[in-house]
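Allow me, if you will, to draw on your knowledge of protein folds for a short while. Thank you for your consideration; the sequence and its tokens are set out here:
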Amino acid sequence: MDSSKPLDGIFVVALEQAVAAPYCSSRLADAGARVVKVERPSGDFARGYDRAVFGESSYFVWINRGKESVALDLTREADKERLHALVAQADVFIQNLAPGAAARLGFGADALRTKYPRLITCDISGYGESGPLHLLKAYDLLVQAESGLVAVSGAPGPWGRIGVSICDITAGMNALIGVQQALLQRERTGRGSGVKVSLFDSASELMAVPYLQARYGAGAPDRVGLKHPSIAPYGSFVCSDGREIVLSIQNEREWESFCRTVLDDAALATDARFTGNNARTSNREVLEESIQQVFGLLTYAEAVDRLTEAQTAYGAINSVHDLIAHPQLRTRPMDVHGRTVEVPAPPYVMEWDDRQFPPVPAIDEHGPLPEPEGRAAKVAA
């Protein structure tokens, strides 16, 4: 079987830190790109977020596999020249420094693409390059709050942070999409292009449904915990043994089957209060009381049996330790300081996937760098 990967031969230079840019570049590395991570001499500060994985940061282990590390002090002209030498050979240059920092150092996207016309640049920022907030630093929690994500998440009461770095991750995904599209465009035109992604734009796009509901509909959704603001029944119910189960009804066929098989009350499906999703959401309180009365008499196992027979979508409320033991979880091994670590596998399965993740680099493990493979002859020519 062909062992090649789609981005074999692509050379990426990433002046990166934290999560968003490293997420993007790690997925490019997974697809075969050679990724050089440019760090400050003290290293990417994400290396110090924790020491959970045999002394390494869980964040760093997650999104820095398979990269080469070069430590540069970009206040020094000699190190700027080293970075320029790398960028001159690169297909892609990614950066997520503080607003304006890359340009002040001489690595602004427009200037680089003028100098290197085939280069693809990717700038990841907090708030974009215009508007009253564009010069602000931005971290994930701040953008969760600024974008309104926290206003539609969790249960009533004190504000709560979404439990993962969703704005950083989404910005990294969007940067990956943009870079891949720019690589395809270059195949057609022979020229590179600029990709610009912000955490705020990424979060705002996630907010499209609440935004449209608030601007053109009846209003923004409330924070409703494990319920769904627009669909009923959709949420958690407690079984007789104290275990909770989450279920979702998406259409009338599912609702009828749920009433008949799970609730053992086929007539409920045609009750005027519950015919159609709009009616059910309007009468959510009495609907959920009726459902809870039934689930309160069933053990978790009995509820699962009925839900399975009815083909009703359901799930358990699991802890992180439950996820670790979950039969559906796919992981891939990685070496960390001579120990084998199981890391969640990418959500897409490709025929060129490696069986094991490559390790993360030590600070400046690969500096000074050799000439990128296959590039010296091109430059000489």
Notes: The first helix runs from residue 20 to 30.
